[in-house]
Amino acid sequence: MKLYDISLRRAGPSIPDRLAAARRLDALGVAFVDGGRPARSSYPRTFFGRAAAELRLRVATLVASGGAEDLAALLAAETPAVTVVVQGHGLLVVREAVRQLVRAERRVVVEARDFFDGWLADPEHALEVVLTAAEAGAETVLLHDTAGELWPDQIGEIVGTVAETGVPLGFGCHDDGGSAAKQLLAADAGAVLVQGSYAVVRGGLDRVDPPSVHSAETGVAPVPCPRLEQTVSAQKAIGGVR
Length: 242
Fold this sequence. Notes:
Blueprint: E1 2-5, H1 15-28, E2 32-34, H2 42-54, E3 61-67, H3 71-76, E4 81-86, H4 91-103, E5 107-112, H5 115-121, H6 123-136, E6 140-145, H7 152-163, E7 169-173, H8 179-189, E8 193-196, H9 215-218, H10 229-238
Parallel strand pairs: 1-2, 1-8, 2-3, 3-4, 4-5, 5-6, 6-7, 7-8
C-alpha cells in the first residue's frame, strides 16, 4: 500500500515550507507528493519551478493536479506524474485527457470525485469511468468519497467489487471523522494507494494526528491492518516537527 499526500494542495504554505515538506515526505517513503493545482494558483506554479531546480527526491514522485480542462497548465508544470481530477466529466473527456498526458510521457492518476455517490446512483456508469481511465493509460484510479456520507463497511464493499476488474485502485475522502476506518477497509478491499494529508503544513511542518479507529466514532471496532502501518508511522514521524 502506497501513500499519496495532498497537504500541499493548500494555498497558504510558503515556497520554502513546501520544499521542506516535500523533502520530509520523501524521507518517510511517501509515494506521491501533490504540489497543488497550477491552473488555480500561482503558489503551485512557483513551487513546481523551484522544485525542478532544487528538489532531488529519492522515493516520492512529485505530482501536479487539476481538472481535465487544465491540461495546458498540468503539462507546463513538467512533473513526472499528473493527477486528473474528474467530477461529472463525460467518458470521452476523461479518455482524451488521460491519453494526451500519457502521450506526453506523464504518469497519470485519475481522481474520481463523488465516485461512491455515483456508484449508488448508477454502478454500471461508475464502473465504466474506472475502465475508461485505465484503458486510456491511467496507472491508478483513485476512488474518492467526496461527500463522506457512506459508512466504512460500505466503502470496503464497493472498493472490493471494483477491485475485481483488476484496475489498480486508490482511495481518498474528505470525512475526517471516519477517514481512518475508511482507509483501513479500502486498503483491505484492494486499494493500493491511499490519499490523505500526512504532513499538515501551517508555516512549516506541523503536527498531524495519527489515525485511530474507534467503534464509538465509526461503528467499526479497531482492527489491525498491516498495509496501514506505514500510514501510522508516517504521521507519527511527521507529528511535532516544526
